[in-house]
Amino acid sequence: MSILIKNGTVVTAAETYIADVYVEEEKIVAIGKALSYTADIIIDATGKMIFPGGIDPHVHLDMPFMGTYSSDDYETGTRAALFGGTTMVIDFILQTQGDTLYNALNTWQKKSKGKAVGDYSYHMAVTDFNDDVAKEVVQFITEEGISSFKTFMAYKGALMIDDGQMVQLMKVVKEHGGLVTVHATNGDMIDSLVAKNKALGNTAPLYHYLSQPEVTEAEASARFTDMLAYTDCPGYIVHMTCEGALNAVRRSTLRNQKIFVETCIQYLMLDASLYENDFEGAKWVMSPPLREKKDQEALWSGINQGLIQTVGTDHCPFMWEQKKMGKNDFSKIPNGHPAIEHRMELLFSEGVHKGKISLNKFVEVSATNAAKIFGMYPKKGTIAIGSDADLVIFDPQKEHEISSKTHHMNCDYSGYEGQKVTGKVSTVLLRGKIAIQDEKCHLKPGFGKFIKRKTTTKII
Ligand code: URP
Ligand code: ZN
Ligand code: ZN
Predict the structure, then answer these.
(1) What is the mean pLDDT of residues 393-403?
(2) Which residues, including other chains, have CB under 8 Å from residue 251's CB and lie 6 or more apart?
(3) pLDDT tens digits for 275-294?
(4) Is 237 within 8 Å of 245 (Cβ atoms)?
(5) Residue 212 CB–ligand 1 contact under 6 Å
(6) Which of 158, 99, 455 is nearest to 287 (CA)?
(7) What mean pLDDT comes out for the span 303-331?
(8) Structural domains in the chain?
(9) Are strands 179-183 and 148-152 parallel, antiparallel or unpaired?
């Protein structure tokens, strides 16, 4: 099977140029002007851009959470991702407290194997650290190709570890060349604010937001960077939302720490005024919550300053009926929103089209940096000879509107309903096969492969 893409504008994190791209089996074989290969399929990409397949480093598929499960599974979630140009996702395995990492890995393998349409990997969330778990951490890095370990500084009683466990985990991970990632918010502070609001009879989604002020994230982010400095471990803060947390990282760079930051598309696009719409605000109940306009400005600047390396989604969708579990109590609204499908188009439209980031920065934060940080580069995340032929052919002029009536995520509302977007995915290749064309998915469940990752964090 061979594909020749003619006359597209190839965009990588470093360059933009017009060329043909020739693909054979799973790989990119040649890039150049007027290539003369005969191919099974020829695609004319004149006037279009060619990006590396997007990598979403933060998704939750079929995840047990807050008494229910996220509504996209591996089939619907990775297929929706492909429609939006994301060819690979990194999901989170959750260790059950008191149980082993390997039992959790087996559970997630059953969820994904034979079901994933697009490629995937896992971060391993360590929710209960001890000497036996330490041995498993080493095995995950050396044998399983899973080199990033997620920690939670919130969700006490289910997912949170304490600072002592955090430091011990960092020491092991550092020694074996992995990376510790974190949900950095101060769980105890949040729990006490939640309890106070409930005692006052404050039940609406707005109080979810008011129970997680900026300081809860800024404090935990600073504490995490201090623990990283102490252990000399590389770290990655997920879903950063605000100026205070970004400044904690800015300060930590004075110590030359290896620290990476992810923000998510919703924190760049949406703000906390959405919580003022009574229970409608439940659509955007997520942790951390949406913030202020000044935080959005800080995040865009952080991207351009190189303090923020990736833009993910934290895709964790729930049906409206599931959100209603918190109709009379904001603390029972399952946290998360649907976004896996629209990350690339929203980032292009709001970022590149509106002039907030360059085209090359767009590729860097939507694909290349995630591949580098999480040990998959240059197999994934770039357009180069020998790389996987994960390619997005993108029409930068096409205007469209986001709606739950047309999206492919298994969620009966959209957090971006009616949002007008400039730029649309037209064709997607995954490992040399046409995945998306003519608004249809051409791959079957089971095509998606688990991608084993290396330990390198080759970015700074
Ligand atoms: O609200 C969120 N973010 N839900 C998913 C779990 C997490 O904290 O990432
Ligand atoms: Zn989180
Ligand atoms: Zn998450």
Answers:
(1) 98
(2) 222, 225
(3) 999 999 999 999 999 999 99
(4) yes
(5) no
(6) 158
(7) 98
(8) 2-51+383-398+421-441 (2.30.40.10), 54-373 (3.20.20.140)
(9) parallel
Residue with tokens 């579990």: 325
pLDDT tens string 340-374: 999 999 999 999 999 999 999 999 999 999 999 99
Give the CA radius of gyration of the chain: 21
By the CB criterion, residues less than 5 angstroms from ion ligand 3 are 314
Top mutation candidate among 93, 287, 331 for ligand 1, by most atoms within 8 Å of CB: 287
Instruction: Pick the residue whose CA is nearest to atom 7 on ligand 1.
Output: 287
Residue 285 alpha carbon, nearest atom of ligand 1? 1
338 lines ligand 1 (CB under 6 A): no
What is residue 238's predicted lDDT score, i.e. its pLDDT? 99
Alpha-carbon distance of 101 to 226, in angstroms, equals 26
Q: At what angle do helices 187-199 and 214-231 cross, to 10 degrees?
A: 160
- Write the residue with the smallest CA distance to atom 4 of ligand 1: 336
| Ligand 1 atom nearest to CA at 152 | 8
Q: How far apart are CA 274 and CA 296, in angstroms?
A: 14
pLDDT in tens, 49-86: 999 999 999 999 999 999 999 999 999 999 999 999 99
- 289 CB less than 6 Å from ligand 1? no
Ligand lying nearest the CA atom of residue 58: 3
Q: Is 183 in the pocket of ligand 1 (CB under 6 A)?
A: yes
CA of 23 to the centre of ligand 2 (A): 38
Give φ, ψ of 166 to 5 degrees: -60, -50
- Please report, for residues 170, 237, 270, 312, 376, the alpha-carbon distance to residue 308 in angstroms, rounded to integers and kept in the order given: 21, 9, 18, 11, 19
Tell me if 241 CB under 6 Å of ligand 1: no
The Cα–Cα gap between 130 and 106 comes to 20
Q: What is the SS3 assignment for 88?
A: strand
Confidence of residue 460 (pLDDT cuts 50, 70, 90): very low
Tokens 């008011």 belong to residue: 210
